[in-house]
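Researcher: Good morning. I'm working through a list of sequences from a screen, and I'd like to move beyond sequence-only analysis. For each chain I'm collecting a predicted structure so we can compare shapes side by side. This is the next one on the list. No need for commentary yet; just the structure.
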Amino acid sequence: MIPTIKIVENAEKALEEIKDLYQKGFEMDDVYVLAHQADVTHKIAAIANTKEIGVAEEGIYQSLANVFKSRGDELRSKFISLGVSEEEAAHLERKLDQGHVAIINISKEPVN
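Model: Good morning. Structure tokens for this chain:
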């Protein structure tokens, strides 16, 4: 399944978008956040109670390999692990380079 990805301008807009998804009935386990800076990703995920793309999504070997990659390569790998094409992952990574934040919803429909 290909996730729904929305790119927003900054962390504040990301929090608004995540809140909107929750209000529409999407579960927290289906929403991920990703920013170019790892600390920004961690902060948004902690505040909004979303998930980060990690070992469960990427697999242990890819997750370990990311330790040795550039941040751009790591971000593209994370997008690809969720079913995004390499071309789209590169496009999304460039957006994150510009300071934008990705909100990723892996559910097609709200639960309620």
